[in-house]
Structure formats: structure tokens, C-alpha cells
Amino acid sequence: MTTNDSPVSGTAAVRPAFTLTREHILMVSDLSWSEDNSRALKWYAPDYRCHLPGRPVLVGGRQFLDTLSMVRNAKPDVKIDWHDIMIDGNTAVLHVTFRGHHLGNLFGIPPTGRLLEIGEIIIEKYDDEGRMVEFRQEGDYAGMLSQMGIVPPPGTGPLGMIVHSVKTAVRLTVLDRRNRKAGGR
Predict the structure, then answer these.
(1) pTM for the complete prediction?
(2) Which of 30, 85, 105, 131 sits in a 20 to 30 Å window from 163, CA-based?
């Protein structure tokens, strides 16, 4: 019997198979980015795995939602522009842009106050109950670090890179001390 067939005995109906929709993806995203994102946890499968560039694999929805909370705290005015959502079965490919001011620690980088914009391609896979089982993200993190002033602008020569590195080290030290005085982490 498939999940769409009725039981032979007629005593209990089997739930129809889940169909992934744009609305479902946006609902999970809204809950995940909300201040109380614990309400989103039910939409992450127990064996959920999140792959972010340059970071260890996050296992379980709670680790991922904690990471989103950290990003939201670092960029409290974060906005998401949804450019494309393509769905094939229970897999979705998303093209999004995240935009917000860097006002809190972000992966150990003290707040710069700068507007950050990062374009991303995300692949999400869902199970037959509508829970996300896998998340893969690719984004322009070098561009974001450039916007923060961490890496030199493209085309900077060797001497310029040295000067930029020294200035950045001094600037980040000042920002970190200022942030610590203000009670940041």
C-alpha cells in the first residue's frame, strides 16, 4: 500500500504524502528567523544536518536555530530578499540576499556598524512530513568580509595588503574593546 491508498479495512485513513510548496518554505524560514525560533524546531527532522561553508556540520535543528539567533543578534535589522525558489519533489533551491547592519559580534568579529549584504544559494531537503532534513548554503562570504573591512578590496597590491592588515588589526582591536566596555561579548 502506498501513502496515498486507502486502507483495505477502511478503519483509518493514511495521511497523504507531503508536497513541498513555496508557502511551506517561507513559513519555516519565518519561524526560524523569529525571536522565539523554538517554535520552528518541529519543522527540523531529528537527523537534520546543516552544511555552512568553512564551518563544522551542524547536527539537529537546535544547533542551526542557535546559529540563526546569533546572526539575528549581530544583525538585528536583517532582511531577506527572496529572488528564486525552485522546487523539485522534496528539494528546493533558493536564491536569496540577506541585508542588515553589523551591530553585534558575528562569528567573533566585533560590530562594525556597516551595512552587510550577502547573496546566497541554499539547497533544502525535506522529508515526507514536511521537516527539513538537510540544508546546504553557499554565499559570498569574501564579499561580506570585504564589506566589514576585514579583507582588502579587490585589486589591492602587496604593500596595500600589508597596510590594510595593520589598519584592520588596529580597528578590530578598538572595536572589540569598545564592544566589551558596552557589555557585548
Answers:
(1) 0.78
(2) 105
